[in-house]
Amino acid sequence: xxxxxxxxxxxxxxxxxxxxxxxxxxxxxxxxxxxxxxxxxxxxxxxxxxxxxxxxxxxxxxxxxxxxxxxxxxxxxxxxxxxxxxxxxxxxxxxxxxxxxxxxxxxxxxxxxxxxxxxxxxxxxxxxxxxxxxxxxxxxxxxxxxxxxxxxxxxxxxxxxxxxxxxxxxxxxxxxxxxxxxxxxxxxxxxxxxxxxxxxxxxxxxxxxxxxxxxxxxxxxxxxxxxxxxxxxxxxxxxxxxxxxxxx
Length: 248
Hints:
This protein is α+β, with helices and mostly antiparallel strands.
């Protein structure tokens, strides 16, 4: 019998919202992270079990398309599943996000590396000691996530130093915090008047405690903005890339 897909329900609390009473994008990412953790535990490849076996999963890319931004007091249900081991390199994992009436709020896809902690290198996720169940016929978002090219006319938005509050149990900046940094590079008018309808995050180099990152914003295209996080002391070292899609 095929195992059930993991789902978790969340209430949008006051502390999850921005100044417009809308769910902050970083908190939506946190809800998705909690659902992914629950999925791993339920299906036998949880964090502590993998660590004991000398492995861990690392998220490398995530894209979400947003049909409706939840507001304070709404309830949403997030489902997640692994759908494919792609090119013997990454595990592709999708998300479906519904409101309390079953309407689609958002869809997302992501890629993950299985890292051998002894070698520090990624391995074929199909060879994991605890491989996740696959649902190859379920596609929430079929997009393939590529490396982003820099845009035109880069401008320094601000600098960010990784502090205690940015770190997670892996002792580097949590991938959800990057979303806050990206959103801080936008103006309040942009967020209010156009609204964010999609975001792709590419996680390239981890950011440890004390690292200084230059948040670079590029010139907008008609419907997108790009924001990169570049190392303060090594311009060739990009920590993350983001492409934000705006609604009309």
